[in-house]
Structures are given as structure tokens and as C-alpha cells.
Amino acid sequence: MSDSISIRRRQRPSVTSSNISGFSIPTSNHTSFNRSRRSSWSDSKKVWNASDETENYSDSRTLILKKLDGYYRKVKRQILAFQSLTTGLFPNHLESNKNIAHVVENVFCSIAVWALRQCYCKIDNDQGRSHELGQAAVKCMRGILNCWMKQAKKVEIFKSEQSTYDALHSKFNVFDGSEVEDADEVGQLQICAISIYLLTLVQMITSNLLIIFSMDEVDFVQQLVFSIERAYRTPDYGIWERGSKYNTNTCELHASSIGMAKAALEAMNGFNLYGDQGANWSVVYVDADAHNRNRTTFDTLLPRESASKNTDAALLLTVGWPTFAIHNETLVGSTVRKCIRKLRGTHGFKRFLRDGQYTDLESRDERFYKEPEIKKFDKNECEWPMFFAVMVIDGIFKNNQTQVDEYLHALNPLLRRTTEVHCRTNSSTTNAECESLKSRDMMAHYYYIDHAKQQSSAESESSDRSTIQQTSFACSTEILQGNFFLFGQAVWIICQLLVDKLLTVSDLDPIRRYLPPCDRPKRNSRYSSIQDASRYQYSPNAYKLMPHQLVDKNKPINRSILSNITFSDLVIHVVPISESVRLQQVLATYGIQTQTPKQIEPILIWPPAELVKLYGHLGANEKFGFSGRPMRPIGVLGTCKVYQIASKTIICYPLTFETTDFYMSSDMNLLLDNIRSDLEFITRCWRLKGRPIYLIMLREQHLRGPQKSDLLELLTQIRVGKLSSTICVRLERLQTAISSACIEHLDFLNNTTCSTIDWKSVAVTEYRNVHEIGHYKSLTDITKTVIVNDDIDYINHEFKDQHEIDLRDFICNTDVAIGSLKKHTLATYELYRRGGLDWMIRENYRVKNHLQFLMKEASTCQNWAVIRFVSSLLHKMVDSLAPSVTNLLVRGKIVTIGIFGYEESVVDKPMRPNEIFKILYSDKVFGHSIFHAVLLQELLLNISVFMNTFPQLFNGILKIRLGWVLEAMKLGLEFFRADADETVTLNTISPNDIKQLLYYVLTTNVQQSTLQGADIEPRSSLQKRQMDGALSRVPTNFYEHVWSILERTPKGIKLCNILLPQQPTLSDMTDYELNFSLKIEEMLSRVFDPAYRCLVVEMFEAINVLLQRNPELCFIQPLDVDYLINEAVKLFQQQNNSVDPYKDFYNLPISLVGGSTGYMIQVIINYLFNVHIQKSDFADINAGVNINICKIS
Questions:
Q1: Which contacts (CB < 8 Å, 24+ apart) does range 244-247 have?
Q2: How many CB atoms are closer than 10 A to CB 905?
Q3: Average pLDDT of the chain, as a whole number
Q4: Where is the Phosphorylase b kinase regulatory subunit alpha/beta C-terminal domain (predicted)?
Q5: Whole-model pTM?
Q6: 3-state SS, residue 557
């Protein structure tokens, strides 16, 4: 005991008892120790002698303090020494103007400072360093926030426009936080910068730092959340501010940006920006459906970064620290392995392939590249050692010591050992003191290939042929000039803190993003949190049956195709609501228990549009000029939550049952299919705490059509509890289901706002039909709906030449009945054509009003031609078109909107709804066909659904040409027409039949074996070619085959008078690149006949086979595909005396003997051997080089 006391007297450490990574530090009371003499901010420029460190830290038990003090001095000199006194920002030393701060780099600098603060927080007597470091990090974060708040006007505009010119800047002046000159012109739209800032904000506030000071700042952060909610369809410049890899000032969708936005939304949802001391009104809200769209888009893009970038080192920061955007081990593993395989070098990771920035081949005078310029950067990219440190951090989080050792071993030789900047600038520093500062490990910015040195080395070694030439890498010289790479140095400091076990992964990630969502600490349950519930989920290889009801009801076809199915034990509470008591009584006779709106009181059922209005108050701020949440519809996930608003309980029904929406909800078959799709979607995508509640709004009109038995069957399946093998449901009373529901408290609504709400008037009430006398007790008592199928010819009709007075008299004096509905529609259209929607029919009754009335009457009798025609005249548009387009684009597809045979609009990047609206109702679509403006919307929605559920149907289809797909559906409709005199058209069939017909068109060529066993006659070769050509389907590896042909065709490929040159195509692109495939599709789009397009594809395949088997062959002159097909048809005509040679040739099977392939091969061989055919007006590029280049050896 006395020995221990004497030891305490001799040793007087300055910390209390603590345990940091295994170091036990005893308690002490050192009365003579002056706490204020510990190093402070002003001591950062002083020189520290090694002898002082040995004297102060002679005790091994205080080794932890020695390490922390070493890192403290390192952070002070290498990072904090450059922090601006006024704004708290850090400059980017690589800019020509050293007064520019980059947001992403500043966030990582603040993380490094904050990480060291986390280490000191575990020490009681830290000499005030934890507070000092924490406030330095806060100063930087608030500096970024203040810079952004100066651009509040841009935030408000960006919410609705997502334009690059209205984006928040990612660069600011270090000293005053002002905008950088000409910054709007390039590289400012960085979704990742906002996302990583918001994520770091949550991490720091969770660690008890106070960063947000006022409600104005809370509103501004909420607006930042709004701006990243649509990251899934907002092309940006990416984390490297380059846009596409071509560096031509074009944005594109980046998986890294979307992944970081997804992670930020998860962290922000339900988070209190005031920390533990916050009130209800300082909470941030996130749209669950927006998060889900970002999640599915991110999962779809991986492991690819973007359309032009096959992979990117930014994905390492996205799937790992600091974002941890995904926890699917398969996707994370494939993404990381691809980055390592494609980007890892001896001196670090390339940022992306053909990245020319900072290479000695890049022109310093031009900010952007010219099109042929990118080829010279191939295999000449800079390598960034910073990513070795990122991989070390990733290994520590994964507890993978092998990975840590591997990348530390690779990184150590790449660090620069230099004297720090203060030793060079302080003239009073002695040589001995400078010696003590040497060997400081500094992260090099990049290593580049020194071509001058490599060329001189190659010349000196040219005499020794046995010497293998090595690539000469040189390190960037910024550090020697005192210009530190702060981004990389911050990552390296964090890496060292983790390796030395001074910092734990929980310290660096307080909200535990490195853990799966179900294992993270649960926050206050008052607000919904986006997290995976503890449910079993797996995706086996299973077949999913999909029944198909085609137009010809006598020929149903049941086919099964492989589907991506996720099994889950999530139980969905389904609550059926009858609009009237008598409907409730009728359903009760069939054993289906429902509730009426009156029976669920005081709970109110609201339309989703009313909830959108309430959310319009979220984040609204008059000082900034913010309007609140954009008027975006509430998705199905949002309607499955229960909302508490000022002591009122509100629940919304899904948009599927919204009668004021697009006309597709009037189709009962499609409604039932959408209910199943909604339930399957909820099962797959529900990530909120609690069980979802799905309201089914039952109306009397649902029992009037011929599909009433299908409705009863669906309700019976729900009552049993098993809708399918993948969907578990439970029929519940609403009052019972709320006990386990996901409840969202909308505390941002104050008493003043709530007092203006008329709660009862907007709620759904019980329906009473005063026109029907008495009560019905069975389905046989309900008025039946008469189905009418009659197309509308609006070009030639009886009202075309009538005077407007006669048209008004007809409309006003003729009753609207089933027989006169078509005439009323044509008469009203004639008035619309002459005077527009606002033209008066009678007093206070315009053309628009009468069209809306006709729409309602047509919905009653299911007259789809009138419904579509009137909807198009009213310029109706479905809400979910923009997400549908984005869903196709992120899966590598290109969409064209137009009419077959006319000019099309190419959609190669996500578009806003108003942009899609302008295309649909422009002269290109609406001007040529009124029906197509709405048919294309139906088609786009259905294709998006099939892309999610049956993506294999679109194999070989890169460009989805909606007008051509409709043409394929017309061909399919003709094939299934039972009677030649039948007048069924696409305009007259129901939306559900449109969906089933689309499925048939997409699968019929894939499943010919199924068709041959059915009662349907197999299709001819002509029909197959027409269908494949209309769908723009090509064989597997088709574009790689065209690339191989282009390599053997020096003068390019010619099709439809369009020449695809060999150069610079081969130098600018790669064979696996999406942009090359799109270039080929652009050529094929010049073909206007679907069958001929299919022949062009067959010709390319035949040429590829011939060239692959004869590698010595190539084409001297341009390869004219049209000439070859024309010659093949002529050869066929000569041998068969065909009257219609092209049609007969189209009908030939694809075979070498007796088929089209045999004729094509003969023509190709003749073309290669006949020198006269290959003569051209162009100069022979092979003249004087090799005259026998195309001859067979």
C-alpha cells in the first residue's frame, strides 16, 4: 500500500482515470501544474524539441498523451494553420487563386479536426483542447452554412428547376465567403457536397457540438434536404467537378452523388438540429418515397458510376467511410472489387479512367476538352495515394487487418517527408530546430506520369533491348512550395488516429452508419426513422406467374417468366373503407368486413393532395423567401403512415384511388392490378419503423362493371391473409391497426396554421346517392355499366364544317347519353379547335367545363376512346412520369418520345415533369396525334413497371422508342384480331388491356416455344422482324461486334447516308462504353422501316462472323450497309423471280441455307473481292502503305 502511495507522489499525471483503446490512465491532483501553459492555439507556430517530449512523457503509462499531443501539433500546423480567421474556411492550395475554398475539402478538414476532438473528449484534464478543436470544426461548418445562406434565392429556385445555374455553389472566397467569379459557368452543381455536409452535420451534433443556432438556420437546412431529395434524377458534376469523363461541361447522373444523398436523407430524417436540447419544431423531415427512389436508383446504378464512367474512386467514399450508403454485401463487394481492378495503380487509385486532370498532357489554358482529346489520357491518368488511406480506414471499419496492412505497406513509400511550412517561413528558426521537424509524413496530392523523363529514359535504354521499360511516375510538387493537399492530409490524419487506436470507429461514426440499419441505436420514436426492420429478406431464383388478358378474350395466355422476388415477413395492415353504408352491407353478405368514414371517427381520411398542402408549411421562411416543401405528390409509402396533427389523427389513401388524377384509375382491372403492385412495392421497399397501413377505398361504381367478381376475389384473398407467396397482409379495423403503425408527428405546424384548417370539409365523408331510390341488398340490384368500344375519327366528322352557333345549339339541346357521347365529343372538339378551352358555350359554361363533364360520363360507360380523346384535349398528365423516365435511364436505357414515322425527342437525362409535358403536348406529338399524347403516358408507366419487375424483357433493347413500341403493339393487336372486320384499336381498349398487350409484345419472340404449344399460330419471319425492329431489339454483344467491324473499316461505316468514321470514334470511346452503343443506335434510328432495321442488324452480325473467322480481311472503302442489303435482295430476286422481293426477303428465315443469311454472306464476299465495287470518290488511305491490305493470304 505504501509503495503505491509513493508511486503516486512521484508520478503526477494530468488526466483522470480513463480507458482509451486499452490504455488505463490513473487519477491525479497535481497542484503545481499550470493548466494554462499547455499548448494553445497561439503555440501552433512554436518549435517543439524532442528533448522536451522525452522529459514530459517519460512514463510509459502516459504514452497516450504523447501520441495525442503529437497529433494535436500536427493538426495545428498542417490544417488549422490555414483556416481563415473570418469565415473559418480552408483554402484549396491547388487552385491558381489560393483564396478559393472547396466545400467537400472543407468538410473533410473539419472531420479531421473533429476526429481529434473526439479523442480528447475521453480525457478529463484535456487542457481545453477538446473544446478548442470542436469549436474549430464548428467554425468551418458554420462558415459553409453562412456562405450557402447568402445564396438563399438559388435554393428556392433549385427546388423546382434543378438547373445548373441555380445550384448552390461548391466554391467560395476564403476570406469573405463571396461567390467566386464566373462560378456559375462550371462545376457548381454538386449534390455530393450538400449531402456530405448534411451527413457530417448530423455526426457532429450527435457528438454534442452546437452548430445550428436559430430557427432560420433550421429552415435553411430543411431546404437543403428538399434540394437533395431529387438527387435520383438530377445530373450533376460529381465530386471531382468534371461532369462526364469527357470534361465538356455536361452533367450526368452519378451513383456516388445519389448514394451520398441517400445516406444524408437517412441521417436527417427525424433528427433534431438543436441536439438533445432541441424542441419539436427543430426537427428535420424527409419524404420516405423520395428516399426510396434514391435508394432504388443507387442500387440500380451500382457498380457503375455513370453513363460515361465505368467506375470511379468516389464510390469508395460512398459504399464505405464516411457515407456507408449501402449494406448489401454483394453490391459493396462488386463495387469495391471493380474499383480495385480498374483504378488501382502502384502509386494510388485513379479517380476514373481517362482522367486527364493534372497530367503533363493536359493543356493548362483550356478548362474543357475537345472531343478527340480524351484518347491521349488513356493509361496516362494521375494516381492518388489518398485512396490508399481510404482503403485503410475501410479495412479498420470492416475489421480486416489484412487489408489494413496491405494498403499501409503500399502507402508509406508514397508519403512525402518534408519540413513543415513554418520552418521555411520563420527566419529565426535554427538549423537544429528545423532538423527536428523533418520527416513529417505528408500526403502527396497525386503522382503523374512524367513523359519527358520517360522518353529520355527510353532513349538511353534503346540500345539494351532486354530492358523492360518502366512507367516513370513523378510526385506533385505543391508540398515543396508549402501548398498542402488538405483533403488528403485530413484523410491521412484520420487514418493514423484509427491505426494508432486513439480513435475508435464509434467515435468517428457516432450515429453508427457503418452498422446495418437494424443494428443502429434507435432515436426518439416520436418521429419515423428510415431503417430496415429486423426482417428476413432474401431473393431466390423463383418463377412468378403473371396472367394476361388480351383483347381477344377467347384466347387467354398464361406465361411464366423469371422475376426478381424478395421474400419478407412484413405484414401489411389492409383497411377497406366503403364509401356508403349500403355498399358495406352488400360486401358483408360476401364475408368482407369494411368500415365507413363515419365509423372510424375521430380519425379522418384525407386525400393525399391535402397532406401536400400541409407540407407546404415545412421549412417556409419569409426572411429567406422560402415557400416550403415543393408541391410533390405523396407516394404510396407516405400514405401508409399515420399523421398526428394538432391532436388530430389523419390517414391518407394512396394515389391509386385518386379519382381526380389521370384517367387510368377508371379502369377496374388496372385498379386491381395496381393494388397488387402497391402491396408488392410496400413489401419490398418499406424501410420505416412500424407496420404500414394500406387503405382500400371502395366505391359503388367498382361493383357496376364486369370486373366485380375480380374485386371480390381480391378482397377475399386479403381476408385470408396471403395475397401471394411474397405478400403477407392482414385485414384489420383501422382503430386496431394504428396501435402498431408508423406514426409521424407534424410538429412544424403551429397553432396559427392549424386553426385555419377546416378538418371536416377536406376529409372523406359518407357517400349518399340521391338519384337512386331505396336500398340494394345484393349485386344484382346494382345498376350495370354498359361498355362501349367505338373509335373517334376527329379528322373527318360531321361537325367539321358546321357553324359555331349550330355547334353550341347541339351541345346545349342534346342530352348526353351513351349513343350521343361520341357526337358531343366531336362537336366540343370543333369548338376547342376554333377557340380553345376557354371559349364560351353558354353563360358561365366553357368548353373546358363541358369536356370535364364528358370525361365523367365516358368513365361511367367505359368509353376509352372518348376518355383518352378528352383527357388529351384537357392536357392531362400523370404525376409519376418523371420517376418512370428516371427509372429507365438509370438502367442504361435511352427513351425517345414521338410518333412512328415522325421526328422524335430523345430523353437521355432525367427531366422535370413540365419538360415532359412540353414534349407530349408539342407539335411533334399532340400536333400529329391527339391520342398519342396520353397513350405514350400509359406506355411509359407500364414500361417502367415491367422494368422493375421483369428487367430481362428488355435485354437487347438499349433505346426505348415509345412511338415504335406503339407500332409494335398495333402489329400485335392485328395478329390477335379474331375478326377481320373488327374495329378494335389501341384507342378503344382499356388501359389494362394496353398493359397486357405490351407484355405480349415484349415476350412473344422470347417465348416462341410457348406459343407453338398454344392454340395461336406461330408468327412468320416477317412478323418477327417487324416486331424486333419496332422494339429496337439487337442480339447479345451486338455493339461490341460493330466495334470490331469498325476496327477493320478504316473509312468508316455508312448507313442511310450517314457515315460513322473510324476516327475519332475509336480514339474517343471504348467498346464497352455506353456512349458508343448510343452512337450506333443513333445511326439505326435513321431507318424508318422496322423490318429493314432488323435486316441491318442481321447484316452487321453476318459481317462480324465473316471477319472473325478471317482475321486478315478488312474493308478498304466505307462499308455501305444499304448497298449490301440491296444487293442481297437483288440476288434473291434473280434466283426466285419474286414479284415483291423485299417483302419476300423479309419473310426468309434467319439461316445460312435457304435463308437470308446465305444471301448476305455471298454479297459480303463479293464486296470484299470485287475491287470495282469498293472504288470511292475518297482518297485511298492505304495508297503507298500496303496495297494488299484487304486481300486474303
A1: 244/306, 244/307, 244/308, 244/309, 245/306, 245/308, 245/309, 245/352, 245/353, 245/354, 245/355, 245/374, 246/308, 246/369, 246/371, 246/374, 246/1068, 247/356, 247/357, 247/368, 247/369, 247/374
A2: 18
A3: 81
A4: 1017-1137
A5: 0.83
A6: strand
